[in-house]
Every structure is written in C-alpha cells, then in structure tokens.
Amino acid sequence: MTTAVDSDALRATQRPGDRIFSTSTLVAGSLILAVLAAVAVFLIVQSVPAFLAVPDDFDPGVNNFWGYVWPLAFGTLWSAFLALIMAIPVAIGIALFISHYAPRRLAQGLGYIIDLLAAVPSVVFGLWGIGVLAPMLQPFYKNLVAWFGWFPLFEGPVSGTGRTILTVAVVLAVMVLPIITAITREIFLQTPVLHEEAALALGATRWEMIKMAVLPFGRAGIISAAMLGLGRALGETMAVAMVLSPSPQVIFQLLTSQNPTTIAANIALNFPEAHGVGVNILLGTGLILFIITLAVNMLARYIINRRKAFSGAN
Amino acid sequence: MSTTIAAPLTNSLTAGKLPKHTSVAVLVASWLVTAAVFLMLQLSGATQGFNVAGTLVFGTVLYGVAIYLLSYFVEGVRKAKDRLVTALVTAAFVVALLPLVSLVSTTLANGLPAFLTPTFFTSSQRSIVGAGGGALHAVVGTLFITGLAGLISVPIGLLTAIYLTEYGRGRLARAITFFVDVMTGIPSIVAGLFAFALFSLLFNDPGIRFGFGGAIALTVLMIPVVVRSSEEMLKLVPNELREAAYALGVPKWLTILKVVLPTSIAGIITGIMISISRVIGETAPLLIISGFTASMNYNLFGERMMTLPVFVYTQYANQGADAQAYVDRAWAGALTLILIVMLLNGLARLIAKIFSPKLGR
To answer: How many beta carbons lie within 10 A of that of residue A47, not counting itself?
Structure first.
C-alpha cells in the first residue's frame, strides 16, 4: 500500500530572496537568447533595402544584391578553405606533440604558449602580415610562379607586393591554429589510457598506438574543431582587410595581384565611407556572413554535443 | 663431443636498434650538409649572402629523409615510420612557434621607439601632422568602452552561468547552452553591424557613431565567453558543500551567494579577465560603430570615440605625408595592445594558480 503524501506539505517555503534571485538568473539566461534573436532581426530589417536595391546603387557591371555578394561570399569561403588546409595538419601535429610526445612536465607550459597566439589581437596580425610576412613570401611566390606557373592555381603574373590571397590564408591559418589545437589537444588527452596501453603492450610503436587508439577516438572532435576554426576564419576581418589587395571577382589564382576579397574585409574597408543604401547593402552582406557562420557553428556544436564526453564540461 | 664456442653475447634488447643519440646526430649532420651546400652556392655567386632560413628548412627536410632511410634499413619499416612521424609532429610544433616569435620580436623592434617617446601616453593626435602626438585618446577610449562592456556582460554572464548550473533544467537550459556556444562563433564584425543596425534605427541616425554602441557590440562578443568559463568553474564546486548548507537550513539563494560563489570566485575572475583580454583587441566592431577621431572624448554617449585597435588600424591605413611616423605609431599601439593582453592573461593565470580550489583529483 502506498500512502498518499500531501505534496503541498513537503514543498519548501518560497522566500522572497529565492524568488528574486532565481527570477533574475532566468531573465539573464533568456536575455542571451533575446540578444541572439535581436542580432538576426535587426540585421534582417536593415538589409531589406539592400535586397530591393536597383542596379544604379551598385558598381557598374553588377545588377542586384546577389551579383554583389556572390564574389565576396566566394572569397570568404575560398580563403577560409585555404587557411584550413594549412592549419588542420599542423594543429593535429601540435596537439599530438603536446599530448603524446612532449615531456609531461613541459606539456602544459607548451600549451600556454600556443594559447598566447590566440590572445594576439587581429589588427596586430594584420600589421605583421603586411609588414613582415608579405615581403618575406614575395620572392618565394616569384620562384613558385617561375617553376610551377603551368599549374592553374599558381598562374602568373606574380604580385609584386606579396599581398595575395595565399598570404591572407597563411595569416588566417596562424590565427585559427590555437582554437583547433586547443580542442583537439583536449580530445587526445581524453583517449582512454587503457586503449593506449593495450596497443603498446601488443608491441605497437608510438605512431601505431596513435593511429589505432588516439585518432579513431578523436575523429569527431577533430572534425568539429576544424569547423569551429572554419567559423573563426570566415569571420576574420582586420587581418584580411589590411593584408589583401582586393578586387571583387571570382578568381582561383593564388599569387596574382587580382584577389577575391571577403565579406568581412569588404565591410570594414567600405563602411566608414558608405552612405544611403550603400550602408544597407553592406549590412546585407553582413547578414549573409552571419547566416554562413551560424550554420557552420551550429553544425560543429551539434557534432560536439552528440559526443558529450568531448565538451570538457563534465 | 662437439663444443660450441659461445659467440660474444649481443644484448638482444638493443639489437637491431639505432644508438640512443642517433636522431640528434643525424639532425646536426643534415643541417651541416645543407649549410655546406648553401655555402657553396654563395661562394659560386648563385645566391647573395648565406641563406640561414633555407639551411634550417632544407636541413630539417633532409633529416626526415635520412632518419627514415637509416631506421628503415636498421630497424625495419614500422620503427622508421614512427621516427618519421616524431620528426613531423615536432616540426609542426616548431613551425607554429615561428609566427609567434616573429610577431612579438617585430612588434618590439618596431614599436619601442614611438612607445618610449614621452608624449605617447600623455597627448592625443589632435592637430598633429607627421611625427609626435600620442595615443592617450585611444587608451582612454579602450578603457571606457571595454570597461562598460565588462560592467554589462559580467552580471548577465554570471547570472546565466548560475542559472545553468543551479536552476536550469530541461529545454530552456539546453537551448541556452547551445546558443551560448553558437554565440561564441559570431564574427566580431557582425556584432558591430548589429549594434549599428540597432542604434541607427533607435535614434533614426543613419551615420551614428558613439562609444556606447561599441560597448554593446563588445558585450555581444563577451557574454558567451563569460558564461562558458563561469559555468565550468561553478560546476567544479562539490555538491557536498551545497548539501551541507541546505542541511543547515540555508535558503538556496544564500547558499549560492555565500557558499558556491566564494568557492569558485578565483576561477570566475580568471575567466572574466581572459574574456576582457579577448574583446580588448577587437577592431572591426569598434571601427563600425565607434568610428575614429583624433581628439579626446570622455563621453560614451556622444561623438566618435577612438580605441587602441582602431588607432593601430587608422594610423596604418591613413598614412600622412611623413609615413614613417604613422607606421611607428601603429606599431607602438600594437605593442601597447599586446602588453595589455599579455598582462591580463598572465594575471589571470596567476590568480587561477594561487586561489584555485584544491580538489582531490
């Protein structure tokens, strides 16, 4: 027999302090959702004039908003793609070095050093890219075009300043390196020690152990880390705006002085002088960027959350 | 009876292995060989000057090939692959260090001259053409805007973290967690555009520029970082502490205020300082909504306001007649920024190290 318990009798007394406190935390939490919604709503409202803009509002040769935004969207995706191709192998290498190769005592300190890269402001990266990296890479580009010019991506004429999409991709790769490294490192460290020891006990070398135990365990994490890095690379503004010498068109060649620019860099360069419907057009491109990064980030978070053990939160 | 004469014993544990310091020796040897090649190129006049970077790069590549072949013939293919991967992984780490070292050293070298001029922290750029002047207006603007952003986002972020760890159950909490994570990925320029779109609609001013808008944009970027780091810290507080407080009849809100928060306050402060160091270097949103100016402005709610990152950008982008003076000031501004960020990061790590709760893990 179960005795019916009067549930009201067991309820804790609701003090005003409790009510106020819990309500304020709830409001703060909901405010975050409201802010994210507000970002979307205000961007949409302000970009409506851009979608309705007539050809006169654009540069000659561009008929509507989509014709304007397409080369920029291409440049954004292309530069981020190039950056990721360079960053992912290096980031996995660093993560493996810190988690499995470096002496235990040094490992944490080495991790901090890589994290320092994340702390450098992007405008400093821009300054460095244009002042140091571009002049340094230019002679290398010249040789690349001279020797491999037959390969479509490396077709000439070579840029005289080195301010090309490839330089931008190198800078972006350096900037996304810390975020990819931080996440992959955490996942590699979570590999069950028993799996690793079992592999070693069977006579595997260190590389075979990593191939059999660590990498399969971390695959989902590597993918989502790469996507978070992609989100960062897509939205990076100042480094691209400062380093690239832009021309808004779809070009695949990496080393010429004609380079596709990105949405974010285009906004930063043109916003201070924009007026009238030009402002709305730039806001419209910002909305497109917002949608692209939101989709990439949501997908990455979905993959991470599916394997909750990676989140580090528990 | 045949007697077998024992051959000198080989240590079966080390047989078929390369001696201990082989890899170091091979690495030095390959660098020397490449150096010799480059020296010959220099002497023959094919290249101008000795190519140090080329020596190190090609020497390291040569090391990879040499150690693989050596190990392949002595130790077999599996061990050879292992050595090759070790070389690659270590090289990846060194490659990542190069930009950091290069960046810090160039910033120091280029920034110090202007950084050390006495006027850099005592005057603004008002009516300055060419050399001279300073970045006081930018430093003040950065402190004002970042400070206000912190004032807004720390309470909201902290309360949200408390909601997520102490109160939140079910769908709303899951949604907030998910979208906070998504918000960390919002491009900074989109935050700036949002602040612009919001305030230009509110005040019906299509060319609006003021400091408060910059603070709002930074808030959007800062809140998710504060929430994430505070949440992690609050989760570290052992449940026994909460239960002990409840058992003594302490109400929940007082338990949180007097038990949970004091236990985790060091970690929370660390997280807040790291989030400040994250947003203090943001350029794009401030360029859009706070604009740039050469004068001092102490009013967050009116007129354009200069900030350090935007100062760096504008000094570089809009060089005047005496271009070198502008570039020098840009580097000095960059040096100031890096120093502030490193200081905040170092302080945060120090606080975390000294005051972190000692958990038995």
So the answer is: 24
* Strand-pair partners of A246: A259
Q: Which residue of B has its CA nearest to A233?
A: B187
Say if residues A78 and A165 touch (Cβ distance below 8 Å): yes
Q: Are A174 and A243 in contact (CB under 8 A)?
A: no
CB A305 to CB B186 under 8 A? no
Contact B317 A93 (CB under 8 A): no
Q: Which of B92, B194, B278 sits opposite A43 (nearest CB)?
A: B194
Query: Which element (helix H / strand E) includes A304?
Result: helix A277-306
The tens place of each residue's pLDDT in chain A, 314 residues long, gives: 455 555 555 666 778 888 898 899 999 999 999 999 999 999 999 888 888 877 777 777 777 888 888 889 999 999 999 999 999 999 999 999 999 998 888 888 888 888 888 888 889 999 999 989 998 888 888 888 888 888 888 877 888 788 888 999 999 999 999 989 988 988 888 888 999 999 999 999 999 999 999 998 888 888 888 888 888 899 888 889 888 888 777 888 888 778 888 899 999 988 888 888 888 899 999 999 999 998 888 888 887 777 655 443 33
Alpha helix positions (H), chain B: 22-44, 52-75, 77-115, 136-162, 170-183, 188-202, 211-236, 239-247, 252-255, 261-279, 284-289, 308-317, 323-355
Residues 27-56 of B with CB under 8 A from A: none
Which residues contact residue A283 at a Cβ distance below 8 angstroms, ignoring those fewer than 6 apart?
A43, A46, A47, A50, B193, B196, B197
Closest CA to B121 of B348, B299, B286, B311: B311
Which has the closest alpha carbon to A239: A136, A296, A182, A167?
A: A167
Q: Which of residues 179-208 of B touch A (CB under 8 A)?
A: 179-191, 193-194, 196-198, 200-201, 206-207
| Interface contact A242, partner B, CB < 8 A | yes
Do B213 and B172 meet the contact criterion of CB atoms below 8 Å apart? no
In b/e form, how buried is each residue of A137-165, taking b as 16+ CB within 10 angstroms? bbeebbebbeeeeeeeebbeebbeebbbb
Q: Which helix (H) or strand (E) holds A165?
A: helix A165-189
Cα B86 to Cα B14: distance, rounded to the nearest angstrom: 20
CA distance A52 to B18: 72
* ipTM (interface pTM): 0.86
| pTM to 2 decimal places | 0.87
Whole-angstrom distance, CA of residue B1 vs CA of residue B162: 88
Q: Which residues of B touch A177 (CB under 8 A)?
A: 96
Question: Which residues 265-294 of A are in CB contact (within 8 Å) with B?
Answer: 267-268, 271-272, 275-276, 279, 282-283, 286, 289-290, 293-294
> To which H or E segment does residue A101 belong?
none
Q: Are A42 and A261 in contact (CB under 8 A)?
A: no
Question: Which chain A residues are closer than 8 Å to B103 by Cβ?
Answer: 120, 124-125, 128, 132
Q: Does B108 touch chain A (CB under 8 A)?
A: no
